[in-house]
Amino acid sequence: MKKTVQTYTADFILLIKNRDFLAYILKSVLGALFCYSLYKIFPQHQLNWSIISVLLVLSPDHNDSVKLAFDRIKANLIGAAVGFCAFLIHHPDAAVLSAAIITTILICYFLKLNNPSRSALAALIIVLIQEEEFNTGIAAGERMLCVLLGCAVGLIITYAFAFGQKKRLKKNDGENQTAD
Description:
mainly alpha
């Protein structure tokens, strides 16, 4: 079935009227800007990786957003930890990368984190693969901390929006009861 320009326009209008969608955009922009500000304030650190991490943690779906954020944070921690351990065991190469990917996927599978395993793999790559000027265990540890910072920022934003949603629902519920 071929979509027309009018159909795309109508779909777009519905999308921008969707509160959850707009909240997701706002959460993403706020999280990215906060981490970007830290990156600009502290250029000697690799805080650019926290921007990716925060965006991986945030969820476009409001339902279960806190649970999803926690699952993605767990997955990020797994990926970052596996990446850090792999880096310390052996200088990254194709074999180490492959083993780290397999290990990350297996851990996520056994912990029932199948969907957020993509976040784990992204965190793994952030920590494990490094430019030559940052090719040290200290740099890998710093990247791991940047991933954790992004996770923390994402969790704080998720909680703030969930609290605001709960407050708005409670207010609307009270108004509806008063109207009856």
